[in-house]
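Handout, section B. The chain below has 268 residues.
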Amino acid sequence: MAAVSELDLGLAYADWLRARLTTVDRGQARVLNTPFLDPFNDGINVYIEPKDGGLVLHDNGDTIDHLICLGVNIEDSERRKALIQRAIAGCAVEICGERLQTLANSGNLPQRLHYLLTAILRLNDLWMSAVPRGWADFFALVAEFLDQHDVLYTANVSIPGKTVEHPIDFVIPLPKRKKRLVKLIGDPKPQTAKVLSFTWLELRESRSEAERVVVLNDVRTPDPIEEETEEEFRRISDQTITILRGYSTDVYRWSERSQPHFERLWAA
């Protein structure tokens, strides 16, 4: 098969996305239906409404509502509230009532739309990896692991790409002013791999000197409520791995964190 240029790949992704986006008007709001799926395999909807001369983009409370349907009781746990705030950090998104929202204008609408979708997928990713068995926050697990190994890093950094800014989970400094950008996927699936690949595609051009690394959660953490002591491994599809390897410098599995090669995650 002939090699496809980087520009063609970008256009192919944009064409795929454009063909699957639909809009419908509901009162003063315009509802954008995306091809990215919620925990119930329905397309994620984004609501766009005028406000004070600008625009407010929100999820209509769907994300929090889905968590509640999955048995995640948000209001009764300060820890879970903190996990949600951490998951949306760096995305310019806030929780207003029970909905995720961000403010936009005609100039930054695509950027804020990308941020909101990123926040929604982060929350779905976080809790779909935790329910019903594991209760640990993958971000917190990785941060604790890096701290235990005295790794210098900066968490939740937004980096401008070619068209929008992209939230990065960890940035690890390297010699000669280079950096290693680390993205986490708590529940690896093809759709989350595609969103992440868009980030790498943009940053490969605007941050060509930076390494692009992915850490996949391929285990289910023992549930302390059930007094479990052993991790359960889960299979990641070949399609997911293939998509990620297309744009990533390295892809690491969390299950291999005790193996020597995992140290390359932070080694110079």
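Note. The domain at 19-128 is CATH 3.30.1460 (Yope Regulator; Chain: A,). Compare this with the example in section A.
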